[in-house]
Design a protein that fits this description.
360 residues, alpha+beta, 5-stranded antiparallel β-sheet, Heat Shock Protein 90, Helix Hairpins, Beta-Lactamase
Length: 360
C-alpha cells in the first residue's frame, strides 16, 4: 500500500508540475487538468480566457458550473473510460461546447486526474440551424406559388375548361406565379454562387460611381411608374477593388428596395430616393436613402437574414423574394466590405454599402 500511495503522490506531483502546464499550454483548444481532489491542476490560456473565474488550485466547479461535466469527471475517475458532455453558457452571449473528459491513469489503471478539452460548437450549430431554416423557408416560398399553379391547372382542366374569360384570368395569375418561382430560384442560385467563392477576394478596379449611374438609369422606368423621383449624386469617379457585376447587383438591390418599399408620397420627400457615392481615406461608399416610413428598430439586426421580411405581405405583393439584402451582405463580405443600415420611424432609411478603395 505504501508503494502504491507513493506512486500516486509522484504522479500527482507530475500532473501539477511546470512540464504538465507547458504541455497543456501547447494545446490549441481550451484544456484543463483536474486532479483527484476536483481542483484545477493546470490550464492553458484559451481555458483561462473562456473561464475568467478559473484559478489553479481551486475547485473546478467554481469556474465551470455544469452538473453534466462534473458527472462526466466522476464517471471517468471511476471507470477509466473517456466521456463527453455538453456545456452551454448564455451570458455574455449564448455558446455551446463539447467537453471531452479523458483519464490520466497509472500503469495499474488507477485514475489520478482527468484532462478536459473544450470544443466550441457554437458556430457549427448556428450554421446547421441556419441551413435547416433555409431549406424550410425555401421550400415554403416555392410551395405557395407551386400550389397556386397546380390549383389553376386543375381548374382549367375541369370546370373552367370552356370559359375563355376565366382562362385568360387564370393564365395571367399562373404566369405571375411562375415568374415568382423563377425569381426565387435565380436569387437562390446567385446566393449559392457568391457563397462558393466567398473566400476569393475580387481584384479588379471598379468605378463605383459608374456602376451606380448605370443602375439608376436602368431603374428609372420603374421609378417613374411608381411615381418616385431618383436624385443621383455620383459624378466623380470612386474606384474600388471588386467585381463589377456583383457591385451592380448590390446597387440594384438597394435602389430597387428603396423605390419599392421606401417611397411614401404623402410625406414630405417621401416620393424621392437619393443615391450618392462618396469617398473616404480607405473606402468608397454607395449611399441609398429613402424618405419612407422607416424600419422599426427591432427588425434592423435581422434584415440581412435570408427570407426575413419586415412586412411579408407587402414584400410578396411587390415581387420580393426575401433574399435581396442577404445577397448584398454576402457580396460585400466577399469584397471585405460591409453594409450599414440607419433607420428611424417616419424619417426613412439609409443603406450604405462600403467597399475598400482600389490600391494602385
Amino acid at each position: 500500500m505504501g508503494a502504491r500511495d507513493s506512486r500516486h503522490r509522484e504522479l500527482d506531483a507530475q500532473i501539477r508540475s511546470a512540464f504538465a502546464s507547458k504541455l497543456v499550454g501547447a494545446m490549441p483548444e481550451p484544456a484543463i487538468i483536474v486532479g483527484a481532489d476536483d481542483r484545477a491542476a493546470a490550464a492553458n490560456k484559451p481555458a483561462l480566457a473562456l473561464l475568467p473565474a478559473l484559478r489553479i488550485g481551486e475547485p473546478l466547479v467554481l469556474a465551470l458550473r455544469s452538473p453534466d461535466v462534473i458527472d462526466a469527471i466522476r464517471a471517468v475517475t471511476a471507470t477509466g473510460e473517456a466521456e463527453t458532455a455538453l456545456w452551454s453558457e448564455r451570458v455574455p452571449i449564448e455558446r455551446l461546447f463539447e467537453v471531452c473528459v479523458a483519464p490520466l491513469a497509472t500503469d495499474a489503471g488507477a485514475v489520478v486526474a482527468t484532462l478536459l478539452t473544450l470544443r466550441d460548437l457554437t458556430e457549427s450549430r448556428r450554421v446547421e440551424r441556419m441551413r435547416a431554416d433555409f431549406i424550410a423557408n425555401a421550400s415554403h416560398e416555392l410551395r405557395t406559388p407551386l400550389a397556386s399553379l397546380l390549383g389553376f391547372i386543375e381548374t382549367l382542366q375541369g370546370s373552367a375548361h370552356a370559359d375563355a374569360k376565366a382562362r385568360d384570368k387564370f393564365l395571367a395569375i399562373m404566369r405571375e406565379q411562375g415568374r415568382r418561382m423563377a425569381r426565387l430560384i435565380d436569387d437562390l442560385l446567385s446566393l449559392s454562387r457568391i457563397e462558393q467563392k466567398q473566400h476569393v477576394r475580387p481584384e479588379a478596379a471598379v468605378d463605383l460611381s459608374q456602376a451606380a449611374r448605370h443602375v439608376v438609369d436602368t431603374l428609372a422606368p420603374m421609378a417613374r411608374e411608381m411615381g418616385v423621383e431618383i436624385k443621383s449624386s455620383a459624378e466623380l469617379p470612386v474606384v474600388v477593388t471588386g467585381d463589377r457585376d456583383e457591385l451592380v447587383r448590390v446597387a440594384e438591390n438597394l435602389i430597387e428596395n428603396a423605390i419599392k418599399y421606401g417611397a411614401r408620397p404623402e410625406a414630405a420627400g417621401g416620393d424621392r430616393v437619393e443615391v450618392s457615392v462618396v469617398k473616404t481615406a480607405k473606402d468608397g461608399a454607395l449611399v441609398v436613402r429613402d424618405f419612407g416610413r422607416g424600419i422599426p428598430p427591432e427588425h434592423l439586426p435581422r434584415l440581412t437574414e435570408r427570407f426575413y421580411r419586415v412586412d411579408a405581405g407587402q414584400s410578396r405583393a411587390k415581387n420580393g423574394t426575401g433574399l435581396g439584402l442577404a445577397i448584398v451582405k454576402h457580396i460585400l463580405a466577399r469584397h471585405r466590405g460591409r453594409l450599414t443600415i440607419v433607420s428611424r420611424p417616419d424619417q426613412g432609411s439609409t443603406f450604405t454599402a462600403i467597399v475598400p478603395l482600389h490600391e494602385r
